[in-house]
Specification:
With 731 residues, the protein is α/β, with parallel strands linked by helices. The protein is 50% helix and 14% strand. The protein is built from 24 helices and 20 strands.
Length: 731
């Protein structure tokens, strides 16, 4: 019941509706329920999975919400200075008052209270099994009488009936306090005079003489002497006396007030047990507390409830213009020899783009055919009711003589956002991934849809320069994430660098492509991962060095970026694509326990291992949240060199793992539909993008030329694993 995210979210919604405000329910490894009056947070204990009762839980939620609404926080704090017995009695009477108020406001809760009590009474929550409840003391009778919504019958005596009616008439917490003093005094006197009745209370001895309590009791005896009066008369007399006393205290002189205060203090002292022989506590209240305590899941872990930080996009995103400018400044100080090497790099990039263009064009054509085929399949035809003159001749042998209308489905405006992992581990396969990404950008430009490509890194305030004196100041000034006391802590060094967009000019596209391709060549040659050239690749700006993996930080930012993207470009359907080779960096949630993050209006369990294979990982939770909120299609590409690396993260049987392994080796990828993504492709990282069309052979044989051409084209297509799978997913 309790560990189910959907269930707790429903209860949180219930609490908000009952409280008519943005109140929150949080479950945690706590002993008792509590309410934070400042932050408006209701905290409930985590109960065991087997303790499933909708009515009990709804009743508890309604009860605690009513406490939050109607029990004054400051007055309740004052109860800490009173005795255990006084607090025990106050709890019972205050529960009656607030339960009446919440049920009056929301009559639909009455059923939960009735059935909830039935369940609790049946399960011996009040410790009543095998006991005669008619022999209980007054406070326990009151507790059971009102907890059962007056369905349990008690033969209250005349004096008890007065108190029951007074309990029913309590309007304020002050009324509860005053009445508690009266009931506690009565119960102590009754227990003192009746040893059998004393057994129905939880009693603790006290060494005081109880002289003052006795004098109070004498007052009660005086009431008993007037037994010839009716209950109603007694009740009226009791209330009139209270009103008269209140008016008298207001109009009396200072001396009289001081005397009254002294008397009140003496009475209170006696009731609290300091001058009495014993202390009383409600037996049924204590039993209920113990029963609820046993319902708690002792193995439950503490939870850390957090909200997403706000995002400042101007401090987070490095625009494409700024990106190009940064490299222009960096390159301006190069030597002549370095500029020659830079031109060689640029030539290599342009040659790659030129060679890739025919393949990208072919895939664009294929994409359009698939899209049109699906569109055609969704075409609807319907009869108009108007006779078609051209079919009129066949009216004797056919009923199909009416005109038809063809309805095309509404086409949606699509958009694409790509996230490229710029972490150090990507150096193993940075070049093939970047070349695949360049083809993806070319494809998006060809089909003319809104798109944006970002690389995510955390070098914004200077890579490997945290020792700099000015580092902390830079961080302070350039904070992309704005925290509250309850925020999840994102990395303030996170940066999203815009590489490409549909709005950039052709010239800027080529400039960005040269910078990105050169960066990939630089890290491939520097770390020796499969790339060698007869020239030295020029260095790049240090703030764009490979870093760690702030994927989750970037996904949090996507909530704001996607919203703005859809508003700017009026897109109906958006695809979010990530390209990475590992799990996200750890995100500090500034507290102990499992992370529960507020996504939308609900808190979601994000306690799973941060890897892509864990369904409750923060990455997968964020993806599902973004998908639901923004109507996204989410596609992930996980770049990995060997299949063995995946075995620990794939929850597959041996047979399925073998099938996946064979597909991975043969086709260079295999899909996974069991993550936070709509589809997650595991792609072989050493798949080099091929641009050779066919082997040059001296032949004029048309069939042979055709075979060579098709073979070359297949190699070119097969090498573009990312692009092909992307097209299949979005077509």
């Amino acid at each position: 019941m309790i560990r189910n995210d959907k269930n707790i979210n429903n209860k949180s919604t219930l609490a908000k509706l009952l409280a008519t405000e943005n109140i929150e329910i949080q479950e945690n490894a706590v002993k008792t329920a509590s309410f934070d009056v400042v932050n408006r947070i209701l905290t409930l204990p985590i109960f065991k999975e087997e303790n499933k009762s909708k009515h009990v839980y709804d009743m508890l939620v309604g009860h605690e919400v009513s406490h939050a609404l109607h029990t004054p926080a400051e007055s309740w704090k004052d109860m800490a200075n009173r005795s255990d017995e006084f607090r025990s009695f106050v709890n019972v009477i205050e529960d009656v008052r607030i339960d009446k108020l919440i049920q009056k406001k929301y009559p639909g809760l009455t059923e939960d209270y009735l059935k909830g009590f039935e369940k609790m009474y049946k399960d011996n929550f009040f410790g009543t099994d095998g006991k005669d409840i008619s022999t209980y003391g007054l406070i326990d009778k009151i507790n059971l009488y009102y907890k059962s919504s007056k369905t349990l019958n008690f033969n209250f005596n005349a004096k008890e009936n007065i108190f029951v009616k007074l309990v029913d008439n309590c309007k304020t917490f002050e009324d509860v306090i005053k009445l508690t003093e009266e009931i506690l005094g009565y119960c102590k006197e009754e227990a003192k005079n009746n040893p059998e009745l004393k057994k129905t209370y939880i009693v603790s001895k006290d060494k005081s003489d109880g002289s003052k309590l006795k004098s109070e009791g004498e007052g009660e005896d005086g009431d008993n002497k007037k037994s010839d009066k009716s209950v109603e008369e007694k009740l009226e007399e009791f209330i009139s006396e209270k009103i008269k006393k209140a008016e008298q205290n207001k109009n009396d002189n200072t001396e009289q007030n001081e005397n009254d205060n002294k008397e009140d203090k003496t009475i209170s002292s006696g009731l609290n047990g300091s001058d009495g022989e014993f202390k009383l506590r409600s037996l049924t209240e204590e039993a209920m507390d113990n029963a609820l305590d046993k319902m708690k899941d002792e193995s439950a872990k503490k939870r850390s409830y957090r909200v997403m930080p706000k995002v400042s996009l101007d401090k987070l995103i490095r625009s494409n213009k700024e990106y190009i400018k940064d490299f222009a400044v960096h390159d301006s100080s190069m030597t002549d020899n370095e500029k020659i090497e830079l031109n060689k790099c640029a030539d290599k990039t342009m040659q790659f783009l030129k060679d890739s263009s025919p393949v990208v064009n072919y895939l664009v054509k294929e994409f359009e055919m698939k899209k049109n085929a699906k569109m055609h399949a969704r075409v609807l035809q319907s009869k108009t009711g108007v006779i078609d003159p051209q079919k009129l001749y066949s009216y004797k042998f056919s009923e199909d003589i009416f005109k038809k209308i063809t309805s095309l489905p509404n086409q949606k405006n699509h958009g694409m956002i790509f996230l490229l992992d710029w972490s150090a581990s990507m150096s193993h396969h940075i070049l093939p991934v970047v070349e695949q990404l360049l083809n993806l950008a070319m494809f998006c430009r060809k089909i003319n849809i809104p798109f944006s490509v970002y690389k995510f890194l955390n070098n914004k305030n200077g890579a490997n320069r945290r020792w700099d004196p000015g580092y902390k100041e830079n961080v302070k000034v350039n904070k992309p994430f704005i925290y509250s006391s309850k925020s999840l802590c994102a990395d303030q060094d996170t940066q999203l660098v815009q590489l490409f967009s549909h709005r950039q000019s052709k010239l800027d596209f080529y400039r960005s492509a040269k910078i990105l391709h050169r960066s990939a060549l630089y890290f491939s040659s520097r770390y020796g991962y499969g790339y060698r050239e007869n020239y030295r690749v020029p260095s790049i700006s240090r703030e764009y060095y490979l870093s760690s993996t702030p994927l989750n930080d970037s996904l949090i930012a996507m909530d704001t970026i996607i919203k703005k993207f859809k508003l700017d470009y009026k897109t109906d359907k958006l695809s979010l694509v990530t390209l990475t080779d590992g799990s996200s960096d750890y995100m500090n949630h500034s507290g102990d326990g499992d992370l529960h993050l507020k996504l939308g209006q609900s808190y979601v369990d994000c306690s799973g291992w941060r890897g892509h294979g864990a369904k409750t990982s923060l990455t997968n939770r964020l993806l599902k949240y973004l998908k639901k909120k923004h109507n996204l299609q989410t596609i992930g590409f996980y770049i990995v060199k060997k299949f063995q690396v995946l075995r620990h993260s794939l929850s597959l049987s041996y047979e399925k793992q073998e099938l996946a392994r064979k597909m991975f080796l043969k086709q260079k990828f295999f899909p996974d539909y069991n993550t936070g993504y709509d589809v997650y492709f595991y792609c072989k990282s050493d798949t080099k993008v091929v641009n050779d069309l066919y082997e040059a052979k001296d032949t004029t044989n048309k069939s042979q030329l055709k075979r060579m051409f098709m073979s070359g084209m297949k190699k070119r297509l097969d090498s573009r694993v990312l692009l092909q799978n992307f097209i299949k997913s979005v077509a």
